[in-house]
C-alpha cells in the first residue's frame, strides 16, 4: 500500500518535472475569437455543427424521457464543462489556456450529448465574456463539443477493451479529448489562414505546435479532475452508474467492488 | 483497503494543484496573458490584410469585470457539482437507496 502510494506520488512528481523541460513560448487563442474566421469558413463550420447538435438534442431528449432520474447526473456533466472551461490555467509555455471538461459527460452519456451541453457553455462565453464568438461558435463547437467528445468516446472504449482498467481509460479519454479539441482549433485556423509559404500544413504546424504544448499540462489536469469526479460518483451514486452500465467495468480488484 | 479512494482523491487533487503551480515557477518571467491578443497577432502575421468582419455584441468593460464573469461561471458550475454530489451522498447516507427517485424525507429537520 505505502509503496504504491509513494510510487504514485513519484509519478506525479516525475510528470511535473518532465513538464518543466518544455521551453516557454507564446501561446495563441483558446477559442477562435469573434470575427476571426472568414465568412465562408464560419458558415462551413456552422453547417458541420448543426447536424451534430441535432443528434445531441435527440440523445438528450431520449435520456430525459426514458430515464428522468438521470437528470441530476446530466446537470453534473454540464456543470463540469462549465467549470473547467472557465478555469484559465497557467501552462509551462508561460501563457494561459483552459480545459474543456467534455470527457466526463461523454463517458456517462455517449458521444453526442456534449454537443448540446458544450454549445451552451460556448454560447454563454460568447455572449457574456466576449470569449469565442457567435460567428465562430460553429467552429468552436465542432472542436470542443463534437470532435473532443468523439475522441473521448473512442479512446475510452479502446483503452477499456484492451487494458480493462476503467480509471486509466477515463483519464486518457478526458486528456486526449482536451488535446484533440485544440488540435481541431489549430486545423480550423490553418485552413482559414494558410501560410503564404508552406500553405495549410505550415500554418497547422505553427498554430498546432504552440496550442498543443500549452495544452499538455491542462489536458493532464483535466484527466485527473475527471477521474476525481468519477471516484465521487462511484462512491455516492453507484445506482446511476449501474443504470448506465458503467459500474465496475473491467475493475481489476474485486475487493473494491461493492456491487449488490 | 476501505479508505483507498480517499487517498487516491487527495493525490489527484495534489496533481492538479502542482500542474497549476509548476508553470508559475518554470516560466517565471512570462506574462501568462489570456492569449486572445496573441492569436490576433499570429493571424496578422500570416495574413496582414485580414480584417475582422464581426465584433462581439457585448464586451466586459474591463479585465476585472471579465474575471468577475469568469469567476461567476466557475462558481455556478462548482455550485451545481457540489449540490449534485452532496445530494447523492446524502441519499446514500440516509439509506434511501435503490431507484433514485426524489428524496424521501428522512433528514432530521
From TrEMBL, chain A:
GO biological process: cobalamin biosynthetic process
GO cellular component: ATP-binding cassette (ABC) transporter complex
Keyword entries, A-Z: Cell membrane, Cobalamin biosynthesis, Cobalt, Cobalt transport, Ion transport, Membrane, Transmembrane, Transmembrane helix, Transport
Subcellular locations according to the entry: Cell inner membrane; Cell membrane
One MF annotation (Gene Ontology) recorded for this entry: cobalt ion transmembrane transporter activity
Keyword Iron-sulfur: no
Signal sequence coordinates: none
Segments traversing the membrane: 39-57, 69-87, 107-130, 137-159, 179-204
Membrane topology recorded in Swiss-Prot or TrEMBL: Multi-pass membrane protein
HAMAP family, sorted: CbiM
Subunit relationships: Forms an energy-coupling factor (ECF) transporter complex composed of an ATP-binding protein (A component, CbiO), a transmembrane protein (T component, CbiQ) and 2 possible substrate-capture proteins (S components, CbiM and CbiN) of unknown stoichimetry.
Functional summary from the UniProt entry: Part of the energy-coupling factor (ECF) transporter complex CbiMNOQ involved in cobalt import.
The protein, known as: Cobalt transport protein CbiM
Lineage: Bacteria, Bacillati, Cyanobacteriota, Cyanophyceae, Acaryochloridales
UniProtKB/TrEMBL annotation, chain B:
GO cellular component term, pick one: plasma membrane
Keywords: Cell membrane, Cobalamin biosynthesis, Cobalt, Cobalt transport, Ion transport, Membrane, Transmembrane, Transmembrane helix, Transport
Stated role: Part of the energy-coupling factor (ECF) transporter complex CbiMNOQ involved in cobalt import.
GO molecular function: cobalt ion transmembrane transporter activity
Entry similarity comment: Belongs to the CbiN family.
Segments traversing the membrane: 68-88
PANTHER family: COBALT TRANSPORT PROTEIN CBIN
Chief place of localization: membrane
Subunit-level organization: Forms an energy-coupling factor (ECF) transporter complex composed of an ATP-binding protein (A component, CbiO), a transmembrane protein (T component, CbiQ) and 2 possible substrate-capture proteins (S components, CbiM and CbiN) of unknown stoichimetry.
Protein name per its UniProtKB record: Cobalt transport protein CbiN
HAMAP family assigned: CbiN (MF_00330)
Amino acid at each position: 500500500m505505502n509503496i504504491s502510494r509513494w510510487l504514485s506520488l513519484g509519478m506525479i512528481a516525475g510528470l511535473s518535472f518532465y513538464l518543466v523541460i518544455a521551453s516557454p513560448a507564446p501561446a495563441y487563442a483558446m477559442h477562435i475569437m469573434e470575427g476571426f474566421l472568414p465568412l465562408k469558413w464560419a458558415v462551413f463550420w456552422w453547417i458541420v455543427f448543426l447536424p451534430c447538435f441535432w443528434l445531441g438534442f435527440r440523445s438528450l431528449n431520449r435520456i430525459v424521457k426514458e430515464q428522468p432520474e438521470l437528470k441530476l447526473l446530466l446537470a453534473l456533466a454540464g456543470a463540469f464543462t462549465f467549470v473547467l472551461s472557465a478555469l484559465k490555467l497557467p501552462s509551462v509555455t508561460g501563457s494561459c489556456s483552459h480545459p474543456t471538461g467534455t470527457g466526463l459527460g461523454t463517458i456517462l452519456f455517449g458521444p453526442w450529448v456534449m454537443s448540446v451541453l458544450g454549445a451552451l457553455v460556448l454560447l454563454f462565453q460568447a455572449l457574456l465574456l466576449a470569449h469565442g464568438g457567435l460567428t465562430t461558435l460553429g467552429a468552436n463547437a465542432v472542436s470542443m463539443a463534437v470532435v473532443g467528445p468523439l475522441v473521448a468516446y473512442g479512446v475510452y472504449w479502446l483503452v477499456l477493451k484492451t487494458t480493462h482498467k476503467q480509471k486509466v481509460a477515463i483519464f486518457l479519454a478526458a486528456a486526449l479529448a482536451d488535446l484533440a479539441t485544440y488540435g481541431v482549433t489549430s486545423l480550423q485556423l490553418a485552413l482559414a489562414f494558410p501560410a503564404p509559404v508552406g500553405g495549410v500544413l505550415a500554418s497547422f504546424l505553427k498554430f498546432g505546435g504552440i496550442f498543443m504544448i500549452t495544452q499538455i499540462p491542462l489536458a493532464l489536469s483535466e484527466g485527473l479532475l475527471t477521474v476525481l469526479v468519477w471516484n465521487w460518483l462511484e462512491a455516492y451514486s453507484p445506482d446511476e452508474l449501474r443504470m448506465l452500465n458503467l459500474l465496475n467495468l473491467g475493475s481489476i480488484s474485486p475487493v473494491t467492488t461493492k456491487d449488490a | 483497503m476501505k479508505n483507498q479512494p480517499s487517498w487516491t482523491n487527495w493525490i489527484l487533487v495534489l496533481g492538479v494543484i502542482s500542474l497549476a503551480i509548476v508553470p508559475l515557477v518554470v516560466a517565471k518571467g512570462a506574462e501568462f496573458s489570456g492569449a486572445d491578443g496573441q492569436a490576433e497577432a499570429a493571424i496578422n502575421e500570416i495574413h496582414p490584410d485580414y480584417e475582422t468582419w464581426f465584433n462581439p455584441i457585448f464586451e466586459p468593460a474591463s479585465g476585472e469585470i471579465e474575471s468577475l464573469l469568469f469567476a461567476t461561471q466557475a462558481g455556478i458550475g462548482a455550485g451545481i457539482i457540489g449540490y449534485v454530489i452532496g445530494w447523492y451522498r446524502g441519499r446514500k447516507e440516509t439509506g434511501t437507496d435503490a431507484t433514485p427517485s426524489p428524496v424521501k424525507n428522512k433528514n432530521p429537520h
